[in-house]
Amino acid sequence: MTPEEHRREFLYQAGKLGIEIEGRSMEEIAKEVIGAPIDAIRSLEYCGAPCSPSELIPEADWATMKHARYTRPNGWLDSQIFCSSTYDGSLSHLIAKGQGRSQLAKVFAAICYARLRDPQGLLAIYQISEDDEDDVALEKICQVVTDIGFYGAVVSGLVGAAASSTTDNYHLLFDIGNPFSRLLGNVATHTWDVVSLFGPYDNVLPRDSRQGIFKWRQVILAYCDTGELPCDIWRPMSRSTLVFRKKGVEHLKQEQLAHTKPERALQLAMQEGGEHGLDLLWEDVIRFFLKTGNPRYSHEALDIMGKYDQDRSRALWEV
Fold first, then answer.
1. Coil vs helix vs strand at 196
2. Which of 233, 266, 291 is nearest to 99 (CA)?
3. Order of strands across the sheet with 240-245?
4. Residue 67, number of CB atoms within 10 A of its CB
5. How many separate helices (H) and strands (E) can be counted in the chain?
6. Is residue 212 pLDDT above 90, yes or no?
């Protein structure tokens, strides 16, 4: 979204809360939004980074993955963990599922062809086909959400932190599905990883999840005590990831990671836009797809699909 679109969306949501917006500054309106009842804010189903870049957060690079690539840790920090989960796009999945839109694979493909130099490259990594039923397509698309917007953000942070000569950096990947989720199925999310760490549901935890969960907890707590992890330090040219699964933990190194979908997607992003590539995919493809699920913005996707159909018809005619 452009800064003006962010501004309009923010004012629209404030209006839904019953806040007067005419003739008032963004700061005054924002203070009222902050003071609104939490249940009213939740009812908006408004997520993302609604105010950047805009009058409220004018720095364009503030919330970008490029910015993270140049962010250094504090010099006093001996070590730190960067962690993501294998289906962090779960919230996007739930929101999109409730929007009732159709032809999801075709919509996503049309956006890719309109905005990427190698659209087929991204579609091929995730095996997204226009023949996919909507539920199947949405699951795949939200894996792209996960790998670009979350895994990619973590790797961007690691790139920046790795430039420090005083801080050791580690990458952890949580891949233990939530056994209690009825809406999404048994997928690993960045809410279940925290809940499982503190163990409030151990008494009802399925037996096949216990080994992985207990190992996850053991490793994290040991790190808090000793600062040590059973894996290598992450470096840009020698990547290392500690993956937690149901059966325990696995240490993946550069040669194993290189063939995974997230790493292949990151390589494609670099080809598309260098250090801007992840932000390009996130803003111009993924967030655009998610945004246009809202009926207020659906016409933007329809316009792209119209051009996509025209281009394909022209190509068939020329053949």
1. helix
2. 291
3. 79-85, 168-174, 240-245, 248-253
4. 16
5. 16, 4
6. yes
Altogether, the residues listed in the chain come to a count of 319
Tokens read off for 279: 């932000």
* Euclidean distance between CA atoms 211 and 283, whole angstroms: 38
Cα–Cα distance between 279 and 272 in angstroms, integer? 10
For the chain, how are helix, strand and coil distributed in percent, rounded to 5?
55, 10, 35
Q: How many CA atoms lie within 13 A of 115 on its CB side?
A: 24
Q: What is the pLDDT of residues 56-72, one digit of tens each?
A: 666 666 778 999 999 99
Tokens of 14: 């404030």
Backbone angles phi, psi at 267, to 5 degrees: -65, -40
The closest of 50, 135, 104, 101 to 295, measured between CA atoms, is: 101
Write 183-192 long-range contacts (CB < 8 A, 24+). 183/94, 183/97, 184/87, 184/90, 184/93, 184/94, 187/86, 187/87, 187/90, 188/85, 188/86, 188/87, 189/85, 189/87, 189/88, 189/90, 190/84, 190/85, 190/88, 190/150, 191/90, 192/85
SS3 96: helix
Q: pLDDT tens-digit profile of 39-50?
A: 988 888 676 555
Q: Which residue has the tokens 């020698």?
A: 238
Do the beta carbons of residue 152 and residue 282 sit within 8 Å?
yes
**Res 191: pLDDT:** 87
Residues 6+ apart with CB under 8 A from 135: none
> Could you identify the residue written with the tokens 């039923």?
133
For residues 312 and 15, give the distance between their C-alpha atoms in angstroms, rounded to a whole number.
Answer: 42
pLDDT at 122: 98
